[in-house]
Specification:
Rossmann fold, 949 residues, five-stranded parallel sheet, mainly alpha
Length: 949
């Protein structure tokens, strides 16, 4: 009210009366006693309120610092005039302060162009508000009093930009309406730097809601922190179901905890609450959006995403969460953010003090930056520094973005700006990066950032500021922080200082009514910083368990390059004494037992204890991975069978067990499991892809079903390189088994692999298959070698080693072939392709008899009715024809002798090792006086597997 009175005395205030307010004669009487410019929004004009024109609004819109007061506006009766008023405000170019004087005011009843403006409510009836206004004599009213200009500060040496929010009219209106309506969680999705946080902050500053403290996922923040935050906020609102459950001595199971959390957020008492969560994309697969893990945290989030919480839950993410169950995604209300329109970029350039240039230049700027807000902002900053935009536009690669999510040019520009900072400036930036939530100016001062240091980083575009008037906060964008050195940011002394600052700040909040949750959030963040900086004894106790920082610390000690298992064991044992049934601690205990190379009984007992006290899908999946690494597929299958009994509705467990069955050649059982997974998660493309792989392994009879399943997977997710690789492998199987049309099928397979590599050029399976197809088509072996080298860097597999040996055979470099084949067979003793490559090597040396026996061993080890067996049979027929014709003997005689090496050995089809190119038949002792000459028939018999005649 004081600001309105001051504006009236300075002649920069206009009153806009709604139709209902002007119908009250008491309001008209009070207004006529005062000399305040007034306009009407509906009905007939009543003196002294004039019509809604630009001239009548000049006092508020014609100069900076104007004030416009809407008195009892009504969206129904005054809607047209309010829409016209919004257009006039936008055309004026100034940003007046807008107040709404009414006992009850709903901003969502306003027209869209007014709803996007910042409106502040004054809870007065029209008569009381007008009566409270000052009465001035006409001589006291300034005709056109100039607004005193603020004295420019020249001590900075640079111009700090304004936090100007531009564009996004449609998205703001959609988010505002969805906040007002009931429904599922709100998801604001878009690439990094697209403006998700700015949109949320801009909309929420004018929304009449109670905002909970924001929550951000990251290191040291997991299930405990999330549940504690939900419990504290819901309890303060009068919902204590989750609070009571977490305070019980007998902890609820993870499944029950997830259900209670979803029910607490859906309680009707939480109406009018808003909760913003950032960083959920760190838990998701970056391509398909499903959760990477399946622990207690993921169980809680899945339950929340499938519910309809009463609290307006806003998720800021780069990837939309996918659950793949029927109707799960439909529950989410998604707003996808793209680039800014070129028509609004001039406001962004003005806010960053860029030099003026013709408006037609913004079209090329939008095409270059694709409307990416960060790229456009750095272009504006560069133009302000250079003094001209022309030279920048002549540089064709400067801030040129290929796609919104491919920002290599922007990344390089940010790195150059960081490298140009001085030592002190870089230290200020790294200290600011410690804040997980936007910090106030007082928070930054605690770390040594004064006003000049703060505004310099803002002027460089390296420190973000929230686009709000008053209470502005600052943060380092993830695209900037990823270029900072880890040790620079996580300085222990600085972390301890900031952690204690958060503790002191929490005590300040606790003294104020209604700020308990703010204080609770400060304690959580302070504890996390202190634990990570090795000051565990300084943490403050909370009403709920919050062991996430300790779990992260112990896990880091176990998984780093030089693991400290002794320290991890000491800390873990101390925590287990106090929290014997904590899910994450129990799982860490089992993993640590395995890392310590304990006896199998101790490792299995630790996993069984975790499954008994706090069962989660992750416990079974981790145990399965331990057994797989030990090549105990039977134990791994048993663990997954128990997992399916414990969680019969989890499709991921069915797929994992199906994968194990496929490795055990239990194709029929795997198909049954995959069909069950399809019922649980009908939209999961991996299920159909694995089903296609299972049908492919059945051979010719399963190819029809295989192509149908793989096509279904590609119809759901056409950008999945793994399914494209599966399709290419199926086409290759068809080609190698066919006697005609091989070239066409291999060409189709090659196209599918190329499509997979376009999506992910580093996909190891695609690179491996690309090399295989090059060799199948008689292509360049060196190109195949390059693909294999790239694939084997990421993942060394038996099939990759076999293809490397095959490429060396094609190149004629046979020295290391035998060692590579032996290494492949050590990894996978039943790999029939290794014997096929061995046959190719023998044939290249002219040793047709050895080649025949190797290909025979490959055939015996290949699955029945498989394409490989069909190709081996064709190969055997060709070699058999050479042997029967006698040409094989001539080829052996004509073959160039190979230098013998005592270190170079070959594994034959029976598993014995011998020198290459020679065969020695050992006679009984009575016949060993002299070696008998070796005939071709002896060579054939000597190379047969044991037990064959």
């Amino acid at each position: 009210m004081n600001r309105v009175e001051t504006a009236i005395r300075e002649g920069r205030c206009v009153l806009a009366f709604g139709q209902q307010a002007l119908a009250n004669p008491e309001v008209i009487g009070e207004l006529r006693r005062r000399t305040v410019p007034a306009v009407h929004l509906g009905g007939k004009a009543v003196n002294p309120a004039g019509p809604l024109t630009e001239d009548n609004l000049r006092a508020a819109l014609g100069k900076p610092g104007g004030v416009l007061v809407l008195i009892e506006p009504d969206g129904a009766s005054d809607g047209r005039a309010l829409s016209q008023l919004g257009d006039l405000i936008k055309a004026a170019g100034t940003n007046p302060k807008i107040f709404v004087a009414a006992r009850a005011f709903n901003p969502f009843m306003m027209p869209m162009n007014m709803r996007l403006l910042k409106l502040e409510a004054l809870k007065f009836r029209a008569k009381d508000f007008v009566a409270a206004l000052p009465i001035l004599e006409r001589s006291d009213v300034p005709v056109d009093a100039p607004v005193p200009k603020k004295r420019k500060r020249s001590d900075l040496g640079f111009k700090a930009p304004r936090a100007q929010f531009v564009g996004r009219d449609d998205e703001c209106g959609l988010l505002s309406s969805q906040i007002a309506e009931a429904g599922g969680p709100l998801v604001i999705a878009g690439p990094q730097g697209i403006g998700k946080r700015w949109l949320i902050e801009h909309v929420l500053q004018s929304a009449e809601v109670n905002r909970w403290p924001d929550f951000t996922f990251g290191h040291g923040t997991g299930a405990d922190a999330l549940l504690a935050r939900i419990a504290s906020c819901t309890k303060e609102a009068g919902v204590d179901t989750l609070h009571s459950a977490l305070k019980r001595k007998d902890r609820p199971s993870p499944a029950e905890t997830a259900r209670l959390a979803a029910e607490a957020l859906a309680d009707p008492a939480l109406t009018g609450q808003v909760w913003v969560i950032h960083g959920i994309d760190q838990l998701l697969d970056r391509r398909r959006g499903h959760f990477n893990a399946a622990g207690r945290l993921e169980m809680v989030l899945t339950a929340i995403l499938q519910s309809q919480p009463t609290v307006r839950l806003i998720l800021s993410t780069t990837v939309v969460p996918q659950l793949y169950t029927e109707g799960a995604t439909a529950n989410l209300r998604i707003i996808e953010l793209g680039g800014l329109k070129g028509s609004v970029l001039h406001e962004l350039f003005d806010a960053h003090h860029a030099p003026e240039f013709p408006r037609e230049r913004f079209g090329p700027i939008a095409e270059r930056t694709l409307g990416h807000p960060l790229a456009a902002r750095f272009l504006a900053l560069s133009a302000a520094e250079e003094g001209s935009i022309d030279e920048l536009l002549e540089q064709t690669r400067f801030l040129k973005l290929e796609q919104l999510d491919r920002r290599d040019a922007l990344t390089r520009h940010i790195k150059r700006r960081i490298d140009a900072l001085s030592t002190d400036q870089r230290q200020h930036l790294t200290r600011s990066a410690l804040f997980r939530e936007p910090a106030t100016t007082d928070d930054l001062k605690e770390l040594g950032l004064d006003r000049k240091a703060r505004l310099f980083l803002v002027a460089q575009g390296l420190l973000e500021q929230t686009p709000v008037d008053g209470n502005r906060r600052y943060y380092v964008h993830p695209m900037v922080s990823k270029h900072l050195d880890f040790r620079e940011v996580y300085d222990f002394d600085c972390m301890q200082e900031l952690g204690r600052h958060f503790h002191a700040k929490s005590r300040t909040h606790e003294k104020n009514d209604g700020e308990f949750t703010l204080g609770f959030a400060c304690v959580q963040e302070g504890n996390r910083l202190l634990v990570e900086s090795r000051r565990e004894r300084s943490v403050l106790r909370l009403p709920y368990d919050d062991l996430d920082p300790f779990v992260h610390s112990i896990s880091g000690m176990m998984r780093r390059k030089k693991a400290r298992l002794d320290i991890a064991r000491a800390r873990l044992n101390g925590l287990l004494k106090l929290h014997a049934s904590h899910p994450e601690l129990l799982l860490l205990n089992a993993e640590l037992r395995h890392a310590e190379k304990a006896d199998f009984e101790h490792v299995a007992g630790a996993f069984n204890e975790a499954q008994r006290q706090a069962p989660t899908p992750d416990v079974y999946l981790v145990e399965t991975d331990v057994h797989i690494r030990s090549r105990a597929r039977g134990k791994a299958a048993r663990a997954m069978e128990l997992a399916i009994k414990a969680f019969p509705d989890n499709g991921r467990l069915y797929r994992r067990l199906a994968g194990i069955y496929l490795d055990q050649n239990k194709t029929d059982e795997a198909i049954v499991l995959l069909k069950s997974a399809m019922t649980l998660e009908p939209l999961m493309p991996d299920t159909y892809g694995m089903l296609g792989e299972a049908y492919t392994s059945q051979g010719v009879e399963g190819w029809t079903n295989a192509i149908q399943a793989i096509d279904e997977a590609l119809a759901i997710d056409g950008e999945n390189p793994r399914n494209l690789v599966r399709k290419a492998a199926l086409l290759r199987d068809k080609a190698i088994a066919a006697e005609e049309g091989q070239a066409e099928l291999l060409a189709e397979a090659d196209e599918a692999v190329k499509a997979a590599l376009e999506i992910d050029k580093g996909h190891p399976s695609a690179q491996e298959l690309a090399a295989t197809l090059i060799l199948d088509q008689g292509g360049d072996p060196e190109q195949a070698q390059w693909f294999l080298n790239q694939a084997l860097k990421r993942r060394e597999t038996a099939s990759g080693l076999v293809q490397r040996a095959r490429a060396l055979v094609r190149l004629g470099t046979l020295e290391n072939v035998e060692q590579i084949i032996a290494k492949a067979l050590k990894r996978e003793p039943s790999n029939h392709a290794a014997f096929a490559v061995q046959s190719e090597m023998w044939e290249r040396q002219g040793q047709i008899f050895h080649a025949f026996e190797s290909i025979k061993g490959a055939k015996e080890r290949s699955p029945k009715d498989s394409a490989a067996r069909a190709s081996y049979e064709i190969h055997m027929k060709r070699l058999g024809a050479l042997i029967e014709s006698g040409a094989a003997t001539e080829m052996m005689k004509a073959a160039t002798p190979i230098e013998e090496s005592t270190e170079s050995t070959v594994v034959d089809s029976s598993g014995e090792r011998r020198d290459p190119g020679t065969t020695t038949i050992r006679r009984p002792k009575v016949e060993r006086a002299e070696e008998a000459p070796v005939t071709p028939e002896d060579q054939v018999n000597a190379s047969k597997p044991s037990g064959e005649e």
